[in-house]
């Protein structure tokens, strides 16, 4: 695969960043994962808007303007002759010496990598994480940072329970999201999802669904799973049926009719 690194398209195995890059040493950066379908990047504006929002909040300069960033993404797409796949854009604060502070004019690092489209994931058999919770009061819960340790800890717990996804609760016991996806449930025929204020990442697919369908944003506790007839998880790459939580079936434990419709519309 061909990688974009700070303005240059280069073979993946030749792309290198400094060992002092703050993305490596401090997790000081952001990323976006974008779906490529039929040779076209999906929802590019939503992704770049979220990147710019996060970068502005963290004070990381984006080295390209909107048009230049779009061109860099499309050049990487063309260089890899990618028809069905994934682009990942990573922005870090760049290389710097030890310590937390860094000069305002420190040059950032911008990387765009390409990958083939992974196979569709199996339906989710989720586990509610007990070892860690989401801090919904932290502004970082609304940013797609490259530090995913909370999610990794939760996922290690679910792996130990032979589940293939974990659900994170916030500090008040409300559902936030899954480790790599937003969460939706259907209760009494109504579509529901946790609000951003409860620690859910403002996902691109989530925003797309909310803009087009009647969906309630509401604080929900794990007891909702005993009432829900079905559920699903969303991220930029897929819509994944949720069929069980904590080893108990969700609804009848199969892919529900609403989930099937959502997959048809957005998947």
Helical coverage, percent range: 25-40%
Rounded to the nearest angstrom, the radius of gyration is 19 Å
> Kindly state the mean pLDDT as a whole number?
96
| Termini Cα gap | 25 Å
Low-confidence stretches: none
- Class of the largest domain in CATH? Alpha Beta
CATH architecture of the largest domain: Alpha-Beta Barrel
- CATH fourth-tier homologous superfamily of the largest domain: D-amino Acid Aminotransferase, subunit A, domain 2
Sketch the major β-sheet.
Answer: 9 strands, mixed
- Tell me the β content: 25-35%
Number of domains: 2
Characterize the overall form.
globular
Order of helices and strands: EEHEEHHEEEHEEEEHEHEEEH
Task: Look up the CATH topology of the largest domain.
Answer: D-amino Acid Aminotransferase, Chain A, domain 2
Structural classification? alpha+beta
Oligomerization status of the protein chains: single chain
Number of DSSP strands? 15
Q: Helix segment count?
A: 7
What would you say this structure looks like, in words?
- The protein is of the alpha+beta class and 267 residues long.
- The protein folds into two domains: 2-116, Aminotransferase class 4, branched-chain amino acid transferase, N-terminal domain (D-amino Acid Aminotransferase, Chain A, domain 1), CATH 3.30.470.10; 124-266, D-amino Acid Aminotransferase, Chain A, domain 2 (Alpha-Beta Barrel).
- It is built from seven helices and 15 strands.
- The strands form two sheets. Strands 7, 8, 9, 10, 11, 12, 13, 14 and 15 form a nine-stranded mixed β-sheet that branches. It has a six-stranded antiparallel β-sheet with strand order 2-1-6-5-3-4.
- Strand 7 (124-128), helix 4 (149-160) and strand 8 (165-169) form a beta-alpha-beta unit.
- The longest helix is centred in the first third of the chain and has 15 residues, at 44-58.
- The chain is globular.
- The relative contact order is 0.13.
- The mean pLDDT is 96.
């Amino acid at each position: 695969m061909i990688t974009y690194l700070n303005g240059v398209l280069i073979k993946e195995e030749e792309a290198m960043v400094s060992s002092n890059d703050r993305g490596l040493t401090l997790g000081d950066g952001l990323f976006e994962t974008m779906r490529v379908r039929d040779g076209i990047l999906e929802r590019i504006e939503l992704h770049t808007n979220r990147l710019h929002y996060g970068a502005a909040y963290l004070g990381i300069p984006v080295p390209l303007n909107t048009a230049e960033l779009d061109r860099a993404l499309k050049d990487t797409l063309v260089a890899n002759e990618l028809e069905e796949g994934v682009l990942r854009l990573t922005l870090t604060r760049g290389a710097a010496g030890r310590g937390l502070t860094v000069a305002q004019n420190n040059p950032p690092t911008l990387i765009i990598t390409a990958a083939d489209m992974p196979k569709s994931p199996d339906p989710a058999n989720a586990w509610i994480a007990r070892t860690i919770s989401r801090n919904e009061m932290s502004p970082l819960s609304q940013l797609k940072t490259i530090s995913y340790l909370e999610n990794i800890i939760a996922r290690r717990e679910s792996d130990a329970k032979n589940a293939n996804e974990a659900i994170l609760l916030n500090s008040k016991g409300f559902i936030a999201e899954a480790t790599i996806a937003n969460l939706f449930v259907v209760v009494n025929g109504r579509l529901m999802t946790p609000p951003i204020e409860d620690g859910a990442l403002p996902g691109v697919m989530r925003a797309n669904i909310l803009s087009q369908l009647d969906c309630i944003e509401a604080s929900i506790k794990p007891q909702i799973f005993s009432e829900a007839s079905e559920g699903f998880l969303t991220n930029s790459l897929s819509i994944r049926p949720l069929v069980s939580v904590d080893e108990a079936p969700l609804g009848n434990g199969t892919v529900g009719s609403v989930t099937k419709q959502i997959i048809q519309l957005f998947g």
